[in-house]
Design goal:
The complex is a heterodimer of chains A (25) and B (212). Chain A is built from one helix and no strands. By secondary structure, chain B is mainly α. Chain B has a two-stranded antiparallel ribbon. A two-stranded antiparallel sheet of chain B has the order 3-4. Chain B is globular and about 60 Å long. The interface between A and B is medium-sized, with 20 and 40 residues.
Chain lengths: 25, 212
């Protein structure tokens, strides 16, 4: 049975929060 | 000392002393110099003025300077510690330091709390969480019914709002992330640990030897 994620787990998938992309050329 | 003054005169506008920045962050002097290579690239992508403006920041994150994003806006606001609408080199290094793998968990938790406290009331409120979920869905071109969104927000508050007052305070936040470490994954950028291999060009230009 699928488990619902909490909001912060969902939010943390935003590209806007992925600072790693600053380092990707 | 004459030598130091000469070096300061040679520094480009906005380039703060890497030794001073290294002493205030989790980066070595060489790493600060390597970050300057990245900063130069980002701050000159649209206007070469020695500062990262909002559009340059969006361009770096999304390859698109016009892409509006609630979370990128909040990160930009937090990086812009002086609140002057742009990110200077010192602000860039000090903020990125929070994302260093060696940075203390408490600093990461505080940064994330401020990030999610959209209206800066000192609490993460239910309306803020719902707004962020809606922003995420909008960003991902996903749609969920309002019932499901409410269920996600309800579940979050059942897990995080221990005293049941409808808002998450700092203590509740700390306890929540301790139980949900995956929520804090975004607060660590593994690249920051080997920044000197990601941006090796500084090696040929380094003026200062690392003390450590």
């Amino acid at each position: 049975r699928p488990v619902m994620m909490n909001a912060f787990e969902l939010i943390s998938t935003s590209q806007g929060l992925n600072l790693g992309s600053l380092f990707e050329k | 000392m004459g030598c130091t003054c000469a070096k300061q005169l040679k520094r480009p506008r906005g380039y703060e002393d890497p030794v001073a920045l290294a002493s205030q962050t989790y980066f070595s002097v060489s790493e600060v110099e390597a970050l300057y290579e990245l900063f130069k690239k980002l701050s000159s992508s649209m206007v070469d003025d020695g500062f990262i403006n909002k559009e340059e920041f969006q361009l770096a994150l999304f390859r698109n300077s016009k892409k509006q994003n609630l979370f990128a806006d909040r990160i930009f606001e937090l990086f812009d510690a002086k609140h002057d609408g742009v990110i200077g080199f010192g602000e860039f290094v000090k903020s990125l330091s929070v994302f260093h793998p060696n940075s203390p968990q408490a600093d990461k938790e505080e940064f994330a709390f401020q990030l999610y406290d959209l209206w800066q009331t000192g609490y993460i409120e239910r309306e803020e969480v719902k707004e962020m979920v809606l922003a995420l869905l909008n960003e991902s071109d996903m749609s969920l019914s309002d019932d499901i969104i409410e269920a996600i927000v309800d579940k979050t508050f059942i897990e995080a709002d221990s005293n049941g007052d409808g808002k998450i305070d700092r203590e509740e936040w700390k306890a929540f992330v301790a139980r949900n470490p995956s929520s804090m994954k975004i607060m660590t950028v593994p690249y920051l640990k080997d920044i000197t291999t990601t941006f090796p060009s500084f090696i040929f230009r380094s003026e200062v030897e690392d003390a450590d």
